[in-house]
Automatic annotation (TrEMBL):
This is AGR3 protein. It comes from the Eukaryota. InterPro entries: AGR/TXD, Thioredoxin-like_sf. Transmembrane segments: none annotated. GO terms for molecular function: dystroglycan binding. Keywords: Signal. It holds the Pfam family Thioredoxin_7. The gene is Agr3. One of its GO terms (cellular component) is endoplasmic reticulum. Residues 1-23 form the signal peptide. Belongs to the AGR family. The keyword Signal applies.
Length: 166
């Protein structure tokens, strides 16, 4: 019986450690990237300040998405946004992208209140584009999943405004 116990113990240790390794691997496979589900192929900046810097440097507009994890409207918008190829491609190639789950100190980013979701464009001259709004007069910068064509138009507008004004 004594002969069996070191062997049994080492087999038990092997079983436990391989289960642990598998559990760790599972955790690692889905890292929480800066995309937070809005588009994994997009390069996201981490902070509003970094976004402003990159916008100025690259002459691309900054697109700021304010959202919260437990907001069903945000989740629905995120899904529509992430699944829309045209939006993903434009976001990837033509915009500096930032999604925030907290408010910034810049009051310009909440011209009509601190609701979520809201999407605000900032041009490379670091001007918040209060003229690029969604379809709803009570929440100017909000979009719903069915508004993706409208958001695409606004993204194109943000790009056009750079070319004409700068």
């Amino acid at each position: 019986i004594m002969l069996h116990s070191p062997l049994a113990l080492s087999l038990l240790l092997i079983a436990v450690s391989s289960n642990l390794a598998m559990a760790i691997k599972k955790e690692k496979r889905a890292p929480q990237t800066l995309s937070r589900g809005w588009g994994d192929d997009i390069t996201w900046v981490q902070t509003y300040e970094e976004g402003l810097y990159q916008a100025k440097k690259s002459n691309k507009p900054l697109m700021v998405i304010h959202h919260l994890e437990d907001c069903q409207y945000c989740q629905a918008l995120k899904k529509a946004f992430a699944e829309n190829e045209e939006i993903q491609e434009m976001a990837q190639n033509n915009f500096i992208m930032l999604n925030l789950m907290h408010e910034t100190t810049d009051k310009n980013l909440s011209p009509d209140g601190q609701y979520v979701p809201r999407i605000i464009f900032v041009d490379p001259s670091l001007t918040v584009r209060a003229d690029i709004t969604g379809r709803y007069s009570n929440r100017l910068y909000t979009y719903e999943p069915q508004d993706m064509p409208f958001l695409i138009e606004n993204m194109k507008k943000a790009l056009r405004l750079i070319q004409t004004e700068l």
